[in-house]
Amino acid sequence: MGFFQPGDVALRREVLHGRPWSVTPTRVVADGPDLLVVFTPPGAVFGFPPHDRPHHWQLRGRTHWRGVGKLQLHRPGDAYSVDLYWDGDGRFKGWYLNLQDPFRRTPLGFDTLDHALDYWAPAGGGWEELDRDEFEEQVADGKYTAAQAEAIAATGVEVRAMLSAGDTWWDPAWAAWRPDPGWPAPVLPAGWEDYPLP
């Protein structure tokens, strides 16, 4: 499977218990053997395939990405993405480490699964853990197996150690990135519900 080109639409699909759970269309910023970077712009419309466990955004009536967009950096094999956020005036707010399954390429984009447990490193320095309670509730509710929960917790330990040491791998120059103003919000292509798992 080849790499995407800048400006391509790539579908970020969450897969839960072997079935597609949610789909978000993103714009590819950069793609290569060591890094996949995608942008979720304001207005990107979510898709929710039929599932016996409805997605939490679906239950809350969220149909599209609101507010300013986010940039996501993915390294192959990492069980987290590094998401960048800006405020409405374009000022960089910080780095959000989103624990998730390592991404798996598909013909239309990539598959993953959000793990709820996250870490926020604001532009001014420091960091904090987020959503520990939500993660533990999801473990108790059966979203993850015991082995998956243990692996997610271990990733959290690694991320905390990295942030505490200030030994981060990503290029801080990404904070100055801005989307191409000519990019329209990506849309879900026809047949998005039916494309197979890799």
TrEMBL record:
<dbReference type="InterPro" id="IPR035930">
    <property type="entry name" value="FomD-like_sf"/>
</dbReference>
<dbReference type="Pfam" id="PF04167">
    <property type="entry name" value="DUF402"/>
</dbReference>
<keyword id="KW-0378">Hydrolase</keyword>
<dbReference type="InterPro" id="IPR007295">
    <property type="entry name" value="DUF402"/>
</dbReference>
<protein>
    <submittedName>
        <fullName>DUF402 domain-containing protein</fullName>
    </submittedName>
</protein>
<dbReference type="InterPro" id="IPR050212">
    <property type="entry name" value="Ntdp-like"/>
</dbReference>
<feature type="domain" description="DUF402">
    <location>
        <begin position="56"/>
        <end position="166"/>
    </location>
</feature>
